Amino acid sequence: MTKSAKPGRVSKSPAVTLKSLAVHLGLSAGTVSSVLNNSPASQAIPERTRNRILEAARQFQYWPNFVARSLRVQRTYTIGVIAEEIGDAYGATVISGIETFLRKNNFFFLTVAHRHDPQLMRTYSQLLLTRGVEGVITIDTSVDQQPSLPTVAIAGHQSVPNVTNITLDHQRAARFVLQHLVDLGHREIAFFRGPVPSSDAMPRWTAIQEVAAELNLPINPELVVQLDDLPEISELGIQPAKALLANKRPFTALFAYNDASAVGAMSVFQQAGFRVPTDISVVGFDDISLSSFAIPPLTTVRQPLLEMGRAAAQILLDRIEDRAPFVQEVAVAPELIVRKSTGPAPELSSLPMD
Prior knowledge:
Rossmann fold; about 40% helix; disordered N terminus
């Protein structure tokens, strides 16, 4: 008679070890360890073999002991991510790209959000250093002093030693949008300027002014609204849109600083009786997931946010591992995504604002 298992006891499969995984693959433990730890020696191993090892590790749910590895080589395999905000779609998408690349390369990351509070930024930066991070990625965060660790700044615009800036071509983005609106017959265009602390605010506004001058397109100061420094995400674009309508200056299009403020503005316009795009065309910036589900779907400038996050992580790890030389700047190309929030300009006299 066989003995029955005791109630409540779950039998466990034998733990997969590095040695047993190597035997299964018919490889040496050193080869398997090299690939799973992403050591420099793994670069000499054929890609097919590396893929076999990674696939087997996933199949048997085996990964290196990070704590043991860190103690052995006196490294943390951790980077810091300093963001302006984590909960917004922009920051969350970039962080997702960072996480995807780091996870595949057996690195951890610690994230802090400062909301452009200088004191908080200094405190968090020091905190990350005490946690032993090996490098830093910043998101929408101005870096104006040389950091002690390799740093990659997403939306960085200042030339600082030891900092690689990942920048969008704002001139090209502004040209895409303004030419699109001009081709539709728009001349009276309103603008949302970005919050002053945002690292993209000034470069983007400068680009818009320069491209407008090239197109002989006047920018009326009465149609330019400055976004608040620290608006609530749910309120972004609401008050600025109300301010535009309140000054009674007619306009046929709005070029917003980002998608969230564009969608907020569309809701205000529609509640006030304006049709988008029949009465007012609206253009956003970033192409976050919200933009394609807006009513109507939002015309916007696409930033490849996931790819920017992955690129930042790869550049930083290459610096940490001495696999690539320092690069001052990496340029990213924008793309205009035309949806249903833009259309031909109406006659100004038909608008109820004047």
